[in-house]
Design brief:
With 339 residues, the chain is mainly β. It has helices at 113-116, 143-147, 235-242, 317-322, and strands spanning 3-9, 16-22, 27-34, 40-42, 67-77, 83-95, 98-111, 123-126, 155-161, 164-170, 183-186, 195-198, 200-203, 220-224, 231-233, 249-251, 256-260, 268-272, 275-279, 285-288, 299-302, 304-306, 313-315, 323-328, 333-338. Bound molecules: ligand FLK.
Amino acid sequence: DQGEVSATPQLFDVEYLAPVQIGTPPQTLNLNFDTGSSDLWVFSSETPQQSRGGQKIFEIEKSSSAQRLANNTWAISYGDGSRSSGNVYLDVVSVGGVNVFNQAVESATSVSSSFISDAASSGLLGLAFDKLNTVKPSKQKTFITNALESLELGVFTANLKKSEPGNYNFGFIDETEFTGPLNYVDVDSSDGFWAFQATGYSVEGASGNGTGSPVVPIAHNAIADTGTTLLLLPAGINQAYYRQVKGAKEDPQAGGWTVPCKADLPDLTLHIGSYKAVIPGELILFAPIDTDDIKTAKTCFGGMQSSAGMPFAIYGDVFFKAQFTVFDVENGKLAFAPK
Ligand SMILES: O=C(CCCl)NNC1=[NH+]CCN1
C-alpha cells in the first residue's frame, strides 16, 4: 500500500497542514504532521467550547467505529511551550488512502492558547518514534508504526515548499520530487527523535571569493522536525551567518535575529557527513515583524535562529523547503536530496 497527501502552508509558512480521515463514516480533519512528536491528537466533541477557536472537530459520537480506550489519558508539551491533554479512543485513520485500524486517536479536553487561536489546525499527527507517545498507562503506537506492515516500502517522505502546497508520501519514494542521489545518514532514535549528526556549515560569499567560506566544523546533534517552523542552529552558526547581512541584528525584543526585509541573504550550506545541504538565502527571510504587509515591511524575522539552551539543533520546515527528506522507518535512517 502507499499514499500521498498535500501539505498546505498556513500564513508565512508557520506550519503545514494535511488532510486525515478519521472514523466511520470518515471525518476529514487537517492536521499538522509532526516528526518531532508521537501523539495523534485532535480537537473533538470533548473539547470545551471555550477552548475552541473555529477548528473543525472530530465528532466522536458520530463515528460508529470509535471505541474509548478506558482508563487511559494523554498529556503533551512541545518545544515551543504549547500543551494539550485528554482522553484516548481507538478508531480507523486513513492518510492518502493508507488505512490503519485501531489507531489511537487522542481527544483533547484541554489545549493551550496557541492551539485555540490556530483555527486551521484540528490537531497533530506525530511521526517520531513510539517511545515519545504520552498515553498512560498504555503507551500507543504512531500512525506510521501501525501502517508499516502494509506499506510497499517502510518509509515516508517530506516535500515542503515555500508559500505553496507540497506533500507527504507514505510507502514510496517519488524520484520526481528531488534531483541527484539520496544521501543517507545514520539516525539515533534512542531519545525518540529523528536525531542525526551534522558536521559543520559554510556561508556563501563569506570569504568574498564566491566559493563561500571554508567549512566551519561546528558539529552538532540535530533532529529532523516538521513540527517546528524554523531552522534552530548553534549560536555560532547564527553569528557567522548574520554578520554577512547588512542591518541584521539579534534583537531580544523581537525574540531573535532580524534582518531588513529587502536584504539579499547568502545561502547557508549545512554539512551532514559528506552531504552539503544548501539552504537558499531567500528561505532564511521569514515573516515581517513590523507590519503584516510584506511589501512595505522593513524588518523581517530570520528563518534561522539560535538553538542555545536546547539539547540539540532543530531542522524545521525551513530545512524541508530546501531539502527533500526520506524518513526511512524500516532501516532507521534519514536521507536528504536537493530538489
Ligand atoms: O515539540 C517540538 C520540538 C521537539 Cl524538541 N516539535 N514539534 C512541535 N509540535 C508543535 C510545536 N512543536
